[in-house]
Each structure stands twice: as structure tokens, then as C-alpha cells.
Design brief:
The complex is a heterodimer of chains A (576) and B (88).
Chain A (H helix, E strand, L loop, with lengths): L6 H4 L4 H28 L1 H12 E6 L6 E2 L5 E13 L8 H10 L4 H8 L6 E7 L1 H10 L4 E10 L7 H4 L11 H5 L1 H4 L4 E7 L5 E9 L7 E2 L4 H17 L4 E8 L5 E7 L12 H4 L2 H4 L9 H10 L8 E3 L4 E4 L2 E4 L6 E3 H7 L2 H8 L4 H10 L26 H8 L8 H12 L3 E2 L15 E2 L3 H14 L17 E11 L2 E14 L6 E8 L8 H20 L25
Parallel strand pairs in A: 2-8
Antiparallel strand pairs in A: 1-6, 2-3, 3-4, 3-5, 6-7, 9-10, 9-19, 11-14, 12-13, 15-16, 17-18, 18-19
Chain B lengths: L1 H56 L2 H11 L18
The chains are: A alpha+beta (576), B mainly alpha (88).
Amino acid sequence: MKFTSSPLLSQLLPAWRARFVAALLLLAFGVLAARSVYLQVVRNDFLQQKGESRYSRVIELSATRGRIVDRSGDVMAVSTPVKSIWAIPEDARLTPSQARELAALTEMDVRELNRRLATEKDFIFIKRQIPPDTAEKIAALNLPGIHQQREYRRYYPGGEVTAHILGFTGVEDKGQEGIELAFDAQLAGKPGSRRVIKDRLGRIVEDVESIKSPQEGKDLALALDAKIQYLAFTHLKQALAEHKAKAGGVVVLDAKNGEVLALANLPAYNPNNRLKLTGAQLRNRALTDVFEPGSTMKPFTAALALEKGRFRFDSQIQTAPGRLTIGNATIHDAHMHGILTVAQVVQKSSNVGTAKIAATFAPEEMWQMFDELGFGRPLRLGFPGEVGGRLRPFKTWRPIEQATMAYGHGISVTLMQLARAYLAFARDGDLIPLSLTRLESPPLAGKSIFSAQTAREVRAMLEMAVQPGGTAPKAQIPGYRVAGKTGTAHKLEGGAYAERYVSAFVGFAPASNPKLVVAVMIDEPSAGKYYGGEVAAPVFAQVMAGSLRTLGVPPDAPLRPVQVAREPAPLVPEKL
Amino acid sequence: MLRLNLALIAIVLASALGAVASQHKARKSFTEMERELERMRQLEVEWGQLQLEQSTWAAHARIEKVARERLHMKPPVAGQVLAVEGPR
């Protein structure tokens, strides 16, 4: 029998059965379609995210802090990566031998390590900032619960020599002192992050997006000259040891463009190892400590006298008998001099002569000069803790105060302010702003305070002060003409002047065309000598001589050489 | 008609394979670039360390010590210096 003629085919089934099957199939399709809509449309974002998380990763991009270099490009501060070792104490179950190995690598005591790990905390640092090769050895031990984190550490190859000017950064690589703090915005890098696709082996195969691009810290070129800085620091250190002084500072400025070539302070510290730091070591004295400048102020009084036309270079002043009573106070001179010219008043540093000159000024005139010279106001170099010193409003001045201020008492300044004020003499009477960073071009002419004529005459007076008959013959430098002024001030203690001194010397060279201004301050020399000419002037001469040689400044007072280099006479064979 | 279709299929296949191949190549080059960038960072770190080392060796304190103690040098005293003016 053929299949087509099967009797079963002729049997009619109820129509609903076919429809039922068709409906069932349609329903199944409908369910599938609904599910796919649910997955593709409703849950799309969530699922896509889940999927991506299997292969895409966000990685942190670290940025390094910029380097600090000196004016010739020598590195003064640089960050290099180091590792910090941290632990989850709960997971860190170390066997005694593992603990011993870890302790040896981190240079810790085993008991100290175990004590730290016995804590209840979730997270502890075991040791921060260790060299990368040691960290690799620790990683190779494969200890449970011990992890590593990449950090940066700042190194200062100059050590204590550049400690105060550079300052330092904290453990988080943020500036905390000095240049590091003042220029933090420029030096600091900003870390970024980006999303990438990684393959099975953890290699990055595709960049998806850059979420935040990192910004590397910019390098900073200082005006500092590493060699001059070293000279200033070592000579200051020698002088402090020789005179058993408490503290001291040296500032070297470029008279042509106002750059700070050196700034040294003592006591100092090693910025690479800052355990046991004291406040005294941290002080950047040249900028944050004020002192009474003493006789180093006298040239300003003389300059004002010349400027106002009330005195000439050679006007005569009677300083005998070496005493002058104003109100109920008496001013003394260290030595009796008799009749002196204005130039000699500065040369011999006569208090009486200076007070007599100052008595001809209106308080306002004097105040205005001090204010224009920048006394009483911070220099705003951007340094943390900069102070402005003390310059009282002229309306409250009594005659005796005006007299003492003329020779540097009753007014207080920082060493940097004093050095800057001398720029007015070293230049032709104008004052320019100082710069800690290297300048590409010198600043335009600054603010004129004295006329060029006055500046020239004061330069001549200051040159006399370092010559025989002046107060500081020890400031002389063979081969160069030097000009400068000593200062020896009693220290104020509890409102009264004590038998302790601040010795200072400020000067410039070569006097024919000044290139450098050097200011030296030595606090409480206590080995017998305390006059500025004995204590501070030799430091000035050493620093200035070395700096001029370093910079290749041609001598303006050439010496007669002992040995004259002569070209050997040509050998002419004698003819018979 | 059939020939045209076959040709189109062949072209589509070739372009699909090409897309896959170039994607793979792109990823490979990218990994390589990543590796070189990493090397660059490493070299930069090394450069910083070398600069540090150089400035430690070239520290003025060390140079002065070597000059004075090992080479027995001393600064010239006044009179031993002869200034020579170069031609201008």
C-alpha cells in the first residue's frame, strides 16, 4: 500500500489542534523576541559594562616632579621612583624565617617588625621609600599580605650646602619649604589616567580613551650658581667655627640683573636625611630673620645728604669730642676723630658724624628713602616665612630715634633686603627686583632712588672704607677694587642692648663697574673679636674673590705679577 | 549573474579577512609601542639617577677634597695670577 493512500490521511483531525501548535510556536518566538529586547535594549548598558570589565582596565599614569637645576644646568634636586612596603596585618602570617628575611631587607629589628604586624589595623606601612632593587628582592620572597606601592623620593645632591634655598618636599612629594614650596605649582606634576584593553597575558592591546592626561612637572632653572653657593657656604662655615658664632648668612647678588647667585645660612641640615631636625637648623635666616644693620646703614644716610644737596662729598663735620647728646641719650664713637669730611664719616664709621648729618633731614625724607629701598616690607620672592623687618612710621620718630636709625639702630632688616638696597650703589642709583630664577634678559631699568652722581660718590666713600684708614682693610681682594661697609650692632634682648653682637659686611666689586653684591652676617661671634671688619669682612673677601674668579670678571686693579711670563727669545744660531 | 555574485562574495571575504588581519596587526604594533613607551619611562628614570650620580661625584666639596689631598693643588696666591686680555 502506498503511503499517499493511507487511510490515516483521510481521517480528519479537529482544526483547533493545528491552530494550537501554531499558537504555541508563535508564543515561543514571542518569548524569545521579548528576551532579546530585554537583553539588548533594557539591560544593554549593564551587560556591556560587565563585559568590558573583563578586558578593559583603567590605569593610573604617574607624573614626576620637575627637576631643579642651577644656572648652568647642574641638577640640584631630582625625584626618582622608590617603593614603599605595606601590609595587611591580618593576611601577613609570616613564618619566623620569613619575618627574619623581611626584617633584614628592610633594615629593621625582627621584634619591631612583629610588633607592627601584631596591630589591629587594616593597613600599615612597614617601610617607606626604599630603593627599587631592595623592593624587588622583597617581592621575590612572595610573602603573603605584604604589598608594594610606587612612590617618588627627592634627592638633593648638594646636601646641606643648598638646604635652605631649595627647601624640601614631604613624603607625598609636595613642597614644604624653600623653592620647593615657593614654586610648587610649577614643579609638581599632575597624575592622569586612561582606559585600555588588555589581552589574556596582561599586555595592553588597545587604547580606549584617555580619561585625564598626566602633566609632568616642569623643570626649574634657578639663578643660583652651584660653585658660588659652595664658596659662600664653606667660607661661612669656617668663619662660624673660627669665631664660635651662633649663626650666620651670606647672600650673593648679580648687580647687573638682580639674580640671587647664592644664599647660604648656618646652622644648616641635610635635606636627604631629616631626622632630628631643629627649628634653628630650618631657619632661612637671610630671609626670615631680622637684625639691626648697624653701620651698614650709614652709606644711605650719606647718600641722602648728597642727594638733597645739603652736604658735599668733602663737607666738613666736627665729630669731637666723640659724644653727642640728643634729649637725654648720648651717642658715642668707638674712636675720637675730630673734624671729618662726609666721606671720612662713612670711611671711619663715625656715629656722631652720621647723627649730625641725619639731624638736617625731615623725618619724612628719611622714611621715604628707607621705604623706597624696600625696608619694612617683605621682598615677596615667594619664599615661605619672608619678613619685612621693622620701619616705624615717621610720625612717631623722636629726634634720638632718627639719629640712631641713621646708623642702623632702631630699624631692623633681613640680610636679603640689605643686600638688595646696596644694589642702588652698585648700579647707578636705581633699584631692581630680585629673582631666584635664571633670567633670560636683564630687567628694564629699575626705580631710581639716587642720582648716578650720588651713587658714584658713595661708591668712592665705600672704596675708602676698605682701604687703609677705613674700618675694613680685611675686605680687600688683590687685583680688584672693592667697596663696602662694615656693621657691628649690639643685639636687642628683652628691650635692652646686650653685650652680644651681630657683625655684618655688605659690599660690591669690582668698584669700577660693579658685578656682584655680597652681604655677610654673623650672629654672636664669641671668640673675642666681634667687629664687622674683623669677623664678616674676611668672609666677604673670600667669597667675593672666589666668585669673581669663577665668573671670569677681569681685574680692575691688576697686580704686578711676581713672575712675568715671557715668550722665550728665539734661538738665533750665532754666526761666526 | 552568478559570476558577478561569486566575484562580490570573494571581494567581501577578502575585505573581511583584511579587516581582521589589520586589526590584529594594529594590536601587535600597539603592544610594541606600549613596550617602547615603558622603556622610555625606564630610561628617563635611569637618566635621573645618572644625573644624580654625576652631581654627587662632581660635588664641589668632593672636587676640592681630591684637588687638595690627592693632587696637592692649592689656590694661587696674589701675584701668581696673570691676567691675559684676549683680542677683541
